[in-house]
Amino acid sequence: MTTPDPLDPLDLLGVDDLLTEDERLIRDSVRAFTDRHVRPGLADWYEAGTFPVRELAPELGKLGVLGMHLEGYGCTGSTATEYGVACMELEAADSGLRSFVSVQGSLAMRSIHAFGSEEQKLRWLPELAAGQAVGCFGLTEPEAGSDPASMRTRARRDGTDWVLDGAKAWITNGSVSDVAVVWAATEEGVRGFLVPRGTPGFTARDIPGKLSLRASVTSELAFDGVRLPAGAMLPLARGLRAPLSSLGEARYGILWGTVGAARDCYRTAVQYARDRVQFGRPIGGFQLTQAKLVEMALELEKAYLVAVRIGRLKDEGRAQSAHISFGKLNNVRTALEIARSARTILGANGITTAYPVLRHANNLESVLTYEGTAEIHTLVLGEAITGESAYR
């Protein structure tokens, strides 16, 4: 009779064993990258409200994670689960880092890859994949968040050109982007446009006063009579289905990424409970602390299993929008609760930048509502269960 391996306190069910050799290699490579290039500076970036996009983007390109799930044009063509594992390790460092990669790859690059002309793909995708250029995705507006159909940004034809007017808000990478993928209402329905940096009438400014996702660039975009040539329009993008399909790809990254944030909080709490001595013993020896850690471990493993299952469905071509909503709703909520519980174990130390838990908790407050609020994903699942739409 063989002796079972000792349990890993950070992975009690051994969910890591469900990953393939290639998936574990990607996990380890991205984890090593964040340890070397990201974690040493995170506390300072977060406190200062900065993110070194131009320094990190080429390194992320060399790592191969920018648009890694796309085929050709300098992209690695990874599986959905491999991309998910990468997102998990990126967000274990910080949600802002995973957001940068998600917006670059799943929103900007994916929109060009899926809906662009060959000329547009050749112009932008290799540079974006290498991190030599940065992209953003302009859909959300100040008055149109969960209801993008009410967007006020308009594009009208003027001869062979298009003229773009309007504004976008809460745009990750906005002010540092070399190209913005912008969605606007036209007489033909919603269409997508590529707006390069420096185009006359196009301006971007960072949103001040953020208490969440501070190590991330978040901007407002303004378009005042922006004249674009006919070749700026994404020819295959017609209607809201186009931008929403790219959002589905980004949401998929979120349901994996939040597992990483939760794991980082749980790992920190376990180590702190072992090291922190009160009343003559480590606080991990007290029942109430153990109860918190056990609850965190249970929920973390379940969220990880959800991510793996949806990844496999996606690789098999069987994932539907309701699956993505299931994962985002469950895993973001789980991660946020784990972060909050971890903070209580760390006590006052938990509110400092010396530990990652409150940084993760603050970030997850944004992740909870961006790219589909909990309420919207609840209604997606409600419709899947009942067959009735309750949006209006």
From TrEMBL:
Q: Which PROSITE patterns match?
A: ACYL_COA_DH_1
Q: Which cofactor names does the annotation list?
A: FAD
Q: Give the UniProt record's GO annotations in the biological process aspect.
A: fatty acid beta-oxidation using acyl-CoA dehydrogenase; fatty-acyl-CoA biosynthetic process
- So, what pathway does this thing act in? Amino-acid metabolism; tryptophan metabolism; Amino-acid metabolism; lysine degradation
* Alphabetized GO MF terms: fatty-acyl-CoA binding; flavin adenine dinucleotide binding; glutaryl-CoA dehydrogenase activity
List each copy of the Acyl-CoA dehydrogenase/oxidase N-terminal domain by range: 20-132
Catalytic activity, as annotated:
glutaryl-CoA + oxidized [electron-transfer flavoprotein] + 2 H(+) = (2E)-butenoyl-CoA + reduced [electron-transfer flavoprotein] + CO2
Highest taxon of source = Bacteria
- This enzyme's EC code(s): 1.3.8.6
Acyl-CoA oxidase/dehydrogenase middle domain ranges (all copies): 136-226
Q: Which residues form the signal peptide?
A: none
The Acyl-CoA dehydrogenase/oxidase C-terminal domain extends over: 238-385
Query: Which family does this protein fall into?
Result: Belongs to the acyl-CoA dehydrogenase family.
For this entry, the protein name equals: glutaryl-CoA dehydrogenase (ETF)
